[in-house]
Amino acid sequence: MSLFRSTGFAFAVVAVLALGQAREAEAKRPNILFVMADDLGWMDLACQGNNLVETPHLDSLAKQGMRFTNAYAAAPVCSPTRAAVLTGQAPARLGMTSHLPGKFFPKDNRPQPADMIPAIGPEHVTIAERLKEAGYANAFLGKWHIAPSVGKQGRVADEHSPLNQGFDINIGGASYGGPPSFFSPYRIATLPDGEPGEYLPDRLVNETIGFIRDNKSKPWMVHLWFYTVHWPMQAPEALLKKYENRKGPGLNDTRYGAMIEAMDLAMGRLLASLESLGQAENTLVVFTSDNGGFAGVSDCRPLRESKGHLYEGGIRVPMIVRWPGQVAAGVVNHEPVVSMDFYPTFIEMAGLKPSATKPIDGESLLRLFRGQGKPKRSELFFHFPNYAWHMGNRLGGAVRSGDYKLIRNYDDQSLELYNLKSDLGESKNLVKRRPRLAKRLDQKLSAWLKKTSAKMPKLSKPSER
User: Fold this and answer.
1) What is the reported pLDDT for 420?
2) What is the rounded distance in angstroms from the CA atom of residue 415 to the CA atom of residue 424?
3) Alpha helix positions (H), 215-253
C-alpha cells in the first residue's frame, strides 16, 4: 500500500473515531425536563406543608431529590418570569416587567406604569437556541404568554414563528394567560382539539411523552409549562367531588385543590414514562412555578399577600429538582435561587460556554445541586413598575440579601425592611430600627436598576394626568 493510501486510510479511521466519540459525548449529555406550573403558590403542595391537598407524585419527587424553600420567581406575575427563564435575563433588563398585554392603567392619582416591550423578539437568544448548538432536540408544551399568537392551527415548527425561538415544536403556546377551557375543545390555535372532554394537563403530558419517545436517542430538553392552576377553575368530576368538603386554612377554593391533584396525577404518568423509556437516570427534572398563588383560590399563608405583589406571597415559589447521581436524595435546600438561574445551569449542563456579549442575570446552580458550593452573589433583585390585573399592588422594587428583604415603593420612595428568618409574614417593618442597613440595600437596588437600564413608572403630578 502506498504512503498516500496508508495516510488517507489513517485519516479516515481517525475521522470515524472522532465522529463516534462526538456522537457518544452528545448522547451522554443530560436531558432536561423543566416543568413550570402557573400560579402555584409556595404552600400549594403537600410536601410544602399543605394538609388539604394530595400531591403524592411531587412529594415523591422531592424525596428523590432536592426541595428548595427559598426559590423565587423573577416577578410576581407570569410573562416576565417566563421571559426570564428563556433568556436568563431579569425582567428589568428585558423590559418585560408585567404580564402581557400589560395595559393596566389607573384612573386615579397613582403613578402610571412603566413602558414595556410587547413580546420577546428574535434579538433575544433563548435557552433552546443555545442548546441546539449542542445537538439537543427541544420541545415546548403549554402556556407561552410572551409573544402574540399565530392563527395557524397545529404544531408550530417554523423557525421564524414568534412561538418557536429554538424549539422544534410548540404545542399549546399562545398569547393567552389562561386557556379558554381545560377540557377539549380547547380553542387554542397551536393545540388541535382532542376527544370531547379530554383534560388539558393529560393531553400536554401525552404530547411530552411522545416527544421524549421519538427523541430518546439524542439529548433533549422539554419545557412543559402547565396552564394549571390558572383560571378557569376546572378539574375532572371525580376530583371535584373528592375536594368538595376540603375548604379551609390552606385552600380557599375546593376546585383549586382538585386541579392541583389532577396536575400531580399527570406528573406521575410523566415521571413513570421516564422510567419505562430508560430516560430517568440521565434526566434533570425541575418542577417550579411562575409566581405566587392567586389569592382568590390559594391560601398563601404564612406568606404575606399573593400573586401580583412583591411581598413573599407573590414571588416565593415551590421548587424541586431530581437528577440521579448528581443531586442527593431527600435534601432540603434553603439557599435563595431565582428564575434566571436556570439558563446558565442548562448551558453548563450542555457543555456550552456563556455568550461573551449577552449579559446573564442568573448563576449556574450545578454546584449547589451537587452540594459543592453556593452561588457567589449576595443579593437577588426584583422590579415590578407595573400594575397587576387586580390594580391592588404598589409599584416597586425589592432586594433580598441574606435574611433581610427591602422593598422600595416607587410612588413615595418609602422603604420596608423585613427579617425573613424571624418574620416570614413580613409584618414588622425594621426601617427605623435598622436605618443603615435599609439605606445600604436601597443603594444596591438603585445601582442594579441603573445597571439593567430598568424602565421606571411615570411619577407625574395629578394635574398632568
Assistant:
1) 98
2) 17
3) 237-243
